[in-house]
Design a protein that fits this description.
Distance between the termini: 44 Å
Number of domains: 3
Order of helices and strands: EEEEEHEEEHHHHHH
Length: 251
């Protein structure tokens, strides 16, 4: 039998431990996504820009959008994303026609998945020698689902902790203000997610794009956060903040 001093647990949480029906405190949603790799028969894909938020195909009660990552004039990833409580994957195919124009196309690859978004994030220490990592460790940001750079930074922090302290547990938690903003953002999504499209559009239209991306990814500083707050319509988020404060006080 193999033994180890430390265990890093990235397994999905047990059924019911996370997700809209499993969060006993705080707030939770499911982020579901399905993407297709589309290849055209001729040069038809605009490679000059990526599409981050396309709400034109969203007609349901949840917050849904698509995005496009062009790889070349004949190849692109078209991804549909939904944030809500419905079961099942969103359909990216309605957005494909806007990418390929009148060119013939075929699907050459596909990927899909579901990410529970829970605020506050689950505990990281699962035992004396067990540390939760990845999505299990809350490294997918609760309000956005962004995870890659957070996981990379967390891996570096774990390595630094082992090198400096001889154990992996001295990893810094997310800043308190970030956890508070995540909870408010998530509360707004739960309360009025189908009506938040104008908020996302205003965010990208009125705040510097580099600051928006740092905010979504979890690497924002005070100036970035201030820019984002100024760009957002206050109503939905003030209502969410009041409700979140009330729940915190009752808790």
């Amino acid at each position: 039998m193999e033994t180890a001093r430390w265990v890093y647990d990235s397994r999905p949480a047990a059924p019911g431990a996370a997700g809209p029906q499993g969060a006993r405190r705080g707030v939770a949603l499911l982020q579901t996504f399905r993407g297709v790799w589309v290849q055209t028969s001729e040069d038809a894909i605009d490679t000059s820009a990526a599409t981050l938020l396309d709400f034109t195909a969203d007609d349901g009660p949840d917050l849904g959008f698509s995005y496009v990552l062009p790889v070349g004039p004949r190849l692109a990833m078209v991804m549909a994303v939904r944030m809500g409580e419905l079961v099942g994957l969103p359909d990216p195919l309605p957005a494909v026609g806007r990418v390929t124009g009148r060119s013939l196309w075929e699907v050459v690859g596909e990927e899909s998945g579901t990410t529970p978004l829970v605020a506050p994030a689950p505990p990281r220490r699962l035992g004396r020698r067990v540390l939760a990592i990845g999505r299990r460790g809350g490294r997918a940001r609760p309000s956005t689902g962004y995870a890659v750079t957070r996981i990379l930074a967390d891996t570096a922090a774990i390595a630094a902790s082992v090198d400096r302290h001889g154990h992996p547990m001295a990893v810094p938690p997310d800043p308190r203000w970030q956890r508070a903003l995540d909870a408010i953002w998530m509360r707004a999504l739960v309360r009025e997610r189908a009506g938040l499209e104008p908020a996302f559009l205003a965010l990208f239209a009125q705040a510097p794009i580099d600051r928006v991306l740092r905010f979504l990814d979890g690497g924002a500083g005070p100036r970035d956060v201030a820019s984002v707050i100024r760009a957002l319509p206050p109503g939905p988020f003030l209502r969410a903040a009041v409700e979140q404060a009330g729940r915190s006080i009752r808790g």
